[in-house]
């Protein structure tokens, strides 16, 4: 048996983080009869959605001693998924029509998300379980249980023992900075999207934005409002790609990826074009990091794969005492947190059993071998992409909860399709009225709503 493996049912659980994943985990553990303490180092629930105009002192986030700013949200951010597929299933993320301070758009501003999460926390009395301004600094197995050391705002440390710890600390805070040949001697400024807030500092500059998915598409257009020129480097595009995009500011180009950065200040793209740039903005993603976790070498992060982790949730030898909710990125996030946390709660209460550790390891080894055979790099282990719905159905079946509604998966697929084909206007122009109707009819049939939003399609439209 592993150092912290816990075959008996758990009575008290610690949850690290009061973002979306921590909130739903706290509710699910509580529903299964656990006493729950949620540790949250910030002052409010909401996690990365709590906007901070402050950014970190090191714009690339390379200095390990820098004070951390958790949020990666920029001022102009609106959700990149339509709200009806984003929310938890028994508490849909629908417009608050009675409250004019709220944003009722289908793709609302980032401020609407923490407001929704705070409504959720209030509705299910989760705030009562949260210890705010309390950071977990160490988690380690001791005699089949888990010792959690936390530090409060007065810098006072406390050690407590829990039957189980669920890690819900998020993974959009530690920048992944893509390597560019020659960048060491390139003289310009560099910043990661984690530290991007507003376009003002880029006024009249020539800016290169690396990455062209959700954040890259948004930030390039935000910066283009004030910059002289913005050039997007897109890894997914063919080497010859060079196109001026049709945007109102008329100063945005898309290129293939960067070939090299030069000491004269130029950035050369694989299409042969070169620009003299003032700033490079990296929209190149994030790394997993759990600085508080001490498992005596049992767990590690190798090339951004958190291992070993059965179905992205349980480390076999120390399960179910230690688990992770929210690791896989992209796609349906909150409903994934909900399904994963129902599984964790069911296992901890003893209602559902995990396979033996060696069986979980066999499964993991086979899944790693499959990724390798498919040519999928290690660092994409937790990027589920198209297989997310199969994964969620598998977990839902194991813990006996409702499968993901087909309309929800289709909303995500069509939403991401629009993001790619129409990055300028995908949040305000859509072609999925049929799915909106299906979603709201589903909410109504479950008596979760008593009204319809203004954008609900009238029949026959
Ligand atoms: P977080 O929200 O990051 O919460 C983690 C919490 O843990 C934080 O409150 C943090 O303070 C706390 N914490 C961390 N370490 C400790 C510690 N040691 N001790 C105590 N507390 C700790 N998803 C969507 O569904 N729709 C979108 O439109 C969308 N847009 C996004 C845009 C951006 C720019 C980014 C970066 C992500 C976006 N996402 C979106 C994905 C997003 O990850 C999820 O929506 C979700 O909010 C993440 O929740 P979480 O609880 O896993 O992490």
UniProtKB/TrEMBL annotation:
As recorded in UniProt, coiled-coil segments are none
- Output the Gene Ontology terms for molecular function: flavin adenine dinucleotide binding; N,N-dimethylaniline monooxygenase activity; NADP binding
- Kindly list the cofactors needed: FAD
> Pfam family of this protein, just one?
FMO-like
Q: Does the keyword Plastid apply?
A: no
EC id? 1.-.-.-
Q: What class of enzyme is it?
A: oxidoreductase
List, alphabetically, the InterPro entries matched. Answer: FAD/NAD-bd_sf, Flavin_mOase, Flavin_mOase-like, FMO-like
Q: Which SUPFAM superfamilies match?
A: FAD/NAD(P)-binding domain
Arranged from A to Z, the UniProt key words for this protein are: FAD, Flavoprotein, Monooxygenase, NADP, Oxidoreductase
Q: What's the family?
A: Belongs to the FMO family.
PANTHER family referenced in this protein's UniProt entry, alphabetically:
DIMETHYLANILINE MONOOXYGENASE
Name listed for the protein in its UniProt record: Flavin-containing monooxygenase
């Amino acid at each position: 048996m592993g150092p912290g493996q816990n075959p008996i049912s758990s009575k008290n659980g610690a949850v690290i983080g009061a973002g979306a994943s921590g909130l739903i985990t706290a509710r699910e553990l509580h529903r299964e009869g656990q006493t729950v303490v949620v540790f949250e180092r910030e002052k409010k629930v909401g996690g990365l959605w709590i906007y901070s105009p402050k950014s970190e002192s090191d714009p690339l986030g390379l200095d390990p001693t820098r004070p951390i700013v958790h949020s990666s949200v920029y001022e102009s951010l609106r959700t990149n998924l339509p709200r009806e597929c984003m929310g938890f299933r028994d508490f849909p993320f629908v417009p608050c029509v009675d409250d004019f301070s709220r944003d009722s758009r289908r793709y609302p501003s980032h401020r609407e998300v923490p407001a929704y999460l705070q409504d959720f926390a209030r509705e299910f009395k989760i705030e009562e379980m949260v210890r705010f301004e309390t950071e977990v600094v160490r988690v380690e197995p001791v005699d089949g249980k888990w010792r959690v050391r936390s530090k409060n705002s007065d810098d006072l440390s406390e050690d407590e023992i829990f039957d189980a710890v669920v890690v819900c600390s998020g993974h959009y805070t530690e920048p992944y900075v893509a390597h560019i040949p020659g960048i060491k001697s390139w003289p310009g400024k560099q910043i990661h999207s984690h530290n991007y807030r507003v376009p003002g500092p880029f006024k009249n500059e020539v800016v290169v934005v690396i990455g062209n998915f959700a954040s890259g598409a948004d930030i390039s257009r935000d910066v283009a409002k004030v910059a002289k020129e913005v050039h997007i480097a897109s890894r997914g595009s063919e080497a010859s790609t060079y196109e001026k995009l049709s945007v109102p500011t008329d100063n945005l180009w898309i290129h293939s990826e960067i070939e090299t950065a030069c000491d004269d200040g130029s950035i050369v793209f694989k299409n042969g074009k070169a620009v003299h740039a003032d700033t490079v903005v990296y929209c190149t993603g994030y790394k997993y990091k759990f600085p508080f976790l001490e498992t005596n070498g049992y767990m590690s992060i190798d090339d951004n794969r958190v291992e070993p982790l059965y179905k992205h949730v349980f480390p076999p030898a120390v399960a179910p005492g230690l688990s992770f909710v929210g690791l896989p990125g992209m796609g349906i996030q909150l409903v994934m947190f909900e399904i994963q946390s129902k599984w964790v709660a069911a296992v901890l209460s003893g209602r559902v059993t995990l396979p033996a550790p060696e069986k979980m390891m066999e499964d993991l080894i086979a899944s790693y071998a499959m990724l390798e055979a498919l040519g999928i790099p290690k660092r994409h282990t937790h990027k589920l992409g198209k297989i997310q719905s199969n994964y969620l159905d598998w977990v839902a079946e194991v813990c006996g909860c409702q499968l993901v509604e087909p309309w929800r998966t289709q909303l995500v697929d069509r939403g991401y399709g629009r993001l790619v084909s129409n990055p300028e206007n995908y949040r305000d122009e859509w072609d999925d009225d049929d799915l909106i109707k299906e979603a709201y009819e589903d909410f109504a049939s479950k008596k979760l709503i008593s009204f319809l939003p203004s954008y609900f399609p009238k029949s026959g439209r």
